[in-house]
Amino acid sequence: MSETDVARALQVARQRLEMVGVPDPARDASALFVALAETTVGSGDTMPTDIAEVFEQAVQRRLRREPVSHITGKRAFWMHDFIVTADVLDPRPDTETLVEQAISRPVGRVLDLGTGSGCILASILYEQPDATGIGTDVSDAALAVAERNMAVAGVAERTSLVKSDWFASVGGRFDLIVSNPPYIAADEMAGLSPEVLHEPQIALTPGGDGLDAYRTITGDALAHLSPGGRLLVEIGAGQGVAVSTLFRAAKLRNVKVFDDMNGKNRVVSGENL
């Protein structure tokens, strides 16, 4: 069986990705090769034809600006490599700010609204071994991915997944409610990167000014928060004031805005006091 030179294949892939405007072509070429070939390439300098063919197929998908996570089927987030498909939002490092705030104090019962891949809830429960959680989503496909990711994090036995439009099918009260809802305004969609447009639109935008999900969540939050319970939501750039105003209008107290690793407003929190 003939073999392909690894260094040459990576160089060519980088050049092709660069030509179509992929932001970091060398990183992506390497990531695709390592994930798909699993570094099993004989001497380390060459790869068998079958692996070369799989690599070429992956590069072609990336040339169409499909996200690397969709091609490899996984994305690193918090402490795990979570399963990712085109049915869920691709976990981003900025969202770890939400997890950091969520685990800043002990919790017993957690609700994740619009759980998507389940990475937020799974990460919180992983860090809070005495906690239990419910994740909701309107998408059956997303809930199927979330179920797999609860197993990835080893928290499946402490998790329930429910098909629900926000709070519609959820009962009881929670010590912590978290959500990374769709928040991109309709007029901002055209400016998104090609990679983002491969993700489910329902997870990206509610239309309009991008605030509808926050209006729904804050409107029903107090009815589902235990005394002293917290609501934490991820927000988009420039939404800190608007979402904080919605929190206060809903009678949530001790409203705060937390920045992500890049110094941008990323999470709004409020309490049932």
Automatic annotation (TrEMBL):
Ranges where the Methyltransferase small domain occurs: 95-209
Key words of the record: Methyltransferase, S-adenosyl-L-methionine, Transferase
Enzymatic reactions: L-glutaminyl-[peptide chain release factor] + S-adenosyl-L-methionine = N(5)-methyl-L-glutaminyl-[peptide chain release factor] + S-adenosyl-L-homocysteine + H(+)
Biological process according to GO: methylation
One Pfam family in the UniProt entry: MTS
Function of the molecule: Methylates the class 1 translation termination release factors RF1/PrfA and RF2/PrfB on the glutamine residue of the universally conserved GGQ motif.
Protein name: Release factor glutamine methyltransferase
Gene field: prmC
